[in-house]
Amino acid sequence: ERKRFYQNVSISQGEGGFEINLDHRKLKTPQGKLFTVPSEALAIAVATEWDSQKDTIKFYTMHLTTLCNTALDNPTQRNKMQLIRAAVKFLETDTVCYRVEEPAALAELQRNEWDPVIAWAEKRYDVAIGSSTSILGPNIPASTKETFVSHLASYNMWALQGIEYVITQLKSLILSMGLIDRHITVEKAVLLSRLEEEYQIQRWGSVEWAHDYDLCELRARTAAGTLFVHLCSESSTVKHKLLQD
């Protein structure tokens, strides 16, 4: 945390996109690059994060700012295909594909809650996914992986950074695509990603406050990542043109 050093937050349009101004200073990334985002809506969302900070700046609450910094600085120096391959690799260990046989109540809960999401994904992308109780997980066909590679290739680099972020939170490509495609809500996606944990909590109880904090944090990060993907995927230029027409 650091003491808030600015009074006003504003946005302005520059050559490379939309910039964030803290008083009269332009925001920079950790690597010293000018903080420039591709859409006005995203700039407003980031500016709101900065404006909502009180006496101290809590960087760990500023998920959209962090995602923008990652997209601008690309600290891991990965190209588009490397990002896509990393995202698709999560299919091999996807949360909703790994099932238990015992206890029977949890196995039934997994079938009831996860099977419909897998069925939706198989129909939506015309692929075979399946599930397995083996420790090795399901055998995902190569054609399924290639279909997801092709689908993710339709997103730009900024959106892909957000998609990978959401996948990392949920430990699931399938839940992430359901969320980004607006098939399920953030609350539902988070609940499904924590199904076994929620089952254990209902059975044994939770550690006071710790469970609620973890749940809220995961929802906040997942919601921010999803919003980031949507704001980076939609063209404000097209929207302005449609409004003028």
From TrEMBL:
<dbReference type="Pfam" id="PF07542">
    <property type="entry name" value="ATP12"/>
</dbReference>
<comment type="function">
    <text>Plays a role in the assembly of the F1 component of the mitochondrial ATP synthase (ATPase).</text>
</comment>
<dbReference type="GO" id="GO:0033615">
    <property type="term" value="P:mitochondrial proton-transporting ATP synthase complex assembly"/>
</dbReference>
<keyword id="KW-0809">Transit peptide</keyword>
<keyword id="KW-0999">Mitochondrion inner membrane</keyword>
<keyword id="KW-0143">Chaperone</keyword>
<dbReference type="InterPro" id="IPR023335">
    <property type="entry name" value="ATP12_ortho_dom_sf"/>
</dbReference>
<dbReference type="InterPro" id="IPR042272">
    <property type="entry name" value="ATP12_ATP_synth-F1-assembly_N"/>
</dbReference>
<dbReference type="GO" id="GO:0005743">
    <property type="term" value="C:mitochondrial inner membrane"/>
</dbReference>
<keyword id="KW-0472">Membrane</keyword>
<comment type="similarity">
    <text>Belongs to the ATP12 family.</text>
</comment>
<dbReference type="InterPro" id="IPR011419">
    <property type="entry name" value="ATP12_ATP_synth-F1-assembly"/>
</dbReference>
<comment type="subunit">
    <text>Interacts with ATP5F1B; involved in the assembly of the F1 component of the mitochondrial ATP synthase (ATPase). Interacts with FMC1.</text>
</comment>
<keyword id="KW-0496">Mitochondrion</keyword>
<protein>
    <recommendedName>
        <fullName>ATP synthase mitochondrial F1 complex assembly factor 2</fullName>
    </recommendedName>
</protein>
